[in-house]
Write a structure and sequence with these properties.
- Pfam families: DUF1647 (PF07801).
- InterPro entries: DUF1647.
- There is one protein chain.
- The protein has one domain: Spore Coat Polysaccharide Biosynthesis Protein SpsA, Chain A, CATH 3.90.550.
- With 317 residues, the chain is an alpha/beta fold.
- A hairpin with a 4-residue loop joins strand 2 and strand 3.
């Protein structure tokens, strides 16, 4: 007699640190269909070992709705300028028809429509930022390395060898944006800790890593410590966006206010990212701050015309 499988699977985050064990109060739930689609877990043969070849084998991924489309064009232009051989996966999360037609003519761009219908309802609410982890994981099913870039990112060069040492420290991941003006504790709703627990006291003295640009490879370490739980959190509304979440924080001025006091706001995917990274490296500031490659890009949160766009009229997307 065939045994019926449950339509959903449940996961409970837990981690052993040097000081103590942490186990989540709440479970993260996902349907078997979604887990299969996102390859959670991936086939063993898709895991890769650390090597300098990682720097040759990554693709770019970004996503935009119509209000960020103009801003995204210079992101594309900067990649075409400095790394023209790289593919750019561009996820449509609310573009207009004319914008899609422009994208499909740009060299190196692979257009993707994020299929919100196959994911939990909250993923279509863009202010939860759940789309980011999901888009990254979709492409990681096809490529061993993914370089996520927000639409505000502008590359400043192409010397990837400069962050090989960082890739080794991060066991396959590099970050490029910091938000050291505040701690992650200051910008994380307490309810997220029910799903992704951490040592909150240690988080108070760690500047927050930005989620706007990151290079991630399919190493076992990156999957087990970060990607798996980041995606599962994104699939669960009360993990990624607890009730009462808002992006904008109360004003802060002193170090105490910026680092040690919760500022009545929530940074969604960035908050989860920081919890997982800090847990993976036992809140060691010297290691975590080393994971960031400096001076490799700039941030322009508005339309710019810094780069010439290259069009390939005959390309097939």
């Amino acid at each position: 007699m065939e045994t019926l499988q449950e339509p959903v699977l449940k996961f409970r985050y837990a981690i052993e640190t040097q000081d103590h064990s942490l186990k989540a109060n709440e479970e993260l739930v996902a349907s078997r269909d979604v887990l299969k689609r996102l390859e959670i877990p991936p086939p063993e043969e898709k895991f890769i070992d650390l090597s300098a070849d990682m720097l040759k084998n990554f693709v770019f991924v970004t996503a935009a709705s119509s209000n960020h489309f103009d801003e995204s064009l210079d992101l594309i232009g900067s990649i075409q300028e400095f790394m023209p051989e790289r593919v750019i996966y561009y996820y449509d999360i609310g573009l207009k028809t004319g914008q899609v037609e422009i994208l499909k003519k740009l060299c190196g761009v692979k257009y993707r429509l994020l299929n919100f219908d196959v994911y939990p309802e909250h993923v279509a609410t863009l202010s939860t930022y759940a789309f980011k982890a999901i888009s990254i994981k979709e492409v990681m099913g096809e490529h061993s390395g993914v370089f996520w870039v927000d639409t505000s990112i502008r590359l400043k060069g192409n010397n990837t060898e400069t962050f090989w040492n960082i890739l080794q420290v991060g066991n396959g991941m590099v970050f490029f944006v910091s938000a050291f003006a505040h701690s992650n504790f200051a910008t994380t709703r307490a309810e997220m800790y029910d799903f992704l627990p951490t040592d909150q006291e240690k988080m108070k003295d760690l500047g927050s890593i930005g989620a706007g640009a990151m290079l991630l490879h399919n190493t076992n370490f990156v999957y087990e410590h970060y990607i798996k739980w980041w995606v599962l959190c994104a699939l669960n509304r009360y993990c990624i966006a607890p009730d009462g979440s808002r992006k904008f924080c109360d004003h802060y001025y002193t170090y105490e206010e910026r680092y040690h006091i919760y500022r009545n706001c929530h940074r969604f995917e960035q908050a989860a990212l920081n919890i997982l990274v800090c847990n993976a490296f036992n809140h060691d500031k010297s290691t975590i701050y080393t994971l960031r490659a400096r001076y490799w890009l700039s941030i322009k949160r508005y339309k710019t015309v810094m780069f010439k766009l290259h069009r390939c009229e005959s390309k097939i997307t």
